[in-house]
Amino acid sequence: MRERLQALKEEATEAIETVADLESLRELKVKYLGKKGELTGILRGMGKLSPEERPVIGSLANDIRGQLEELISEREASFEEKALSEKLHLEKIDVTLPGITHPVGSVHPLNLIIEQIEDIFVGMGFEVAEGPEIETDYYNFEALNFLKDHPARDMQDSFYFTPEMLLRTHTSPVQVRTLEAKEGYVPVRIICPGKVYRRDDDDATHSHQFTQIEGLVVDRGVSMSELNGVLLSFIEKIFGEGTEMRLRPSYFPFTEPSVEVDIYDPERGWIEILGAGMVHPRVLEKAGYNPERYTGFAFGMGVERIAMLKYGIEDIRHFYNNDLRFLRQFRSV
Length: 333
What we know:
Elements (H helix, E strand, L loop, with lengths): L1 H17 L3 H12 L4 H6 L9 H38 L18 H14 L4 E2 L5 E3 H4 L19 E3 L2 E3 L4 H11 L5 E10 L11 E11 L4 H16 L5 E8 L2 E11 L3 E11 L1 H6 L8 E8 H9 L12 H4 L6
Parallel strand pairs: 1-5
Antiparallel strand pairs: 2-4, 3-4, 5-6, 6-10, 7-8, 8-9, 9-10
Helix pairs in contact: 1-4, 2-4, 5-10
């Protein structure tokens, strides 16, 4: 049996040392050292040995098993190191090559203006309020003193779903909803940013969808002079210190008196930027406020118009065409 073990050792050693790959090496391990391997087969005959020979042969078999296992481990490590080296060679990265750049986005100019306007008015104690874009005729018109046959409704040609449901034509319904939610309590100081919709032919200065920000203040003793001060503060912060402002008489069903607000541009003269006025007593009354006790003012502006004036944009369609050449200009604004 000693001779058979020595012969097995020599045969296995030669096979392991000359094996070509890791998979073949694992097959050799099973062949020689597995439960049904050749070494185990030889050891099954130990029962025929004398009591004196058994421990000698057992010790020899264990030594051979250990030597073969160590040799197999060394060959496994060699194959794994070679495989890793080949993988690293195939996957190596040339760090001198230029990197792959990914385009960096920017905040849309309309969102930039909205954020700036919100910051200005929040700094003056206003809250930001929002409401639904699909509105009822009551909140969009009637609660704002637009009666069913009121000619002013023609000023805001609308997208109706039903006779009583439409896409809002301004964000003024948010003011009414906020007043109702306050249930007669004051003060009310809100701005209402959001999208609005009107039937209009799209051109360089008009769009069927645009963005408005309206403001509302209701309290005891609110006056036209306070409205003037708030608007002048806003205009100087958005267009720069020293910007001249003027108020011109106008008409809106939901304010009385009503004014158009202009700013002075050295190159173009006076330019209208928003409308405003004292909240009409009927609007306050419908919302649950006693007009003999409370007064208020409201104002509304088109965000696109403010952005066009601030950034010198001549065509409103640039805001909606998603032209990256246009949008990239506002990365550093």
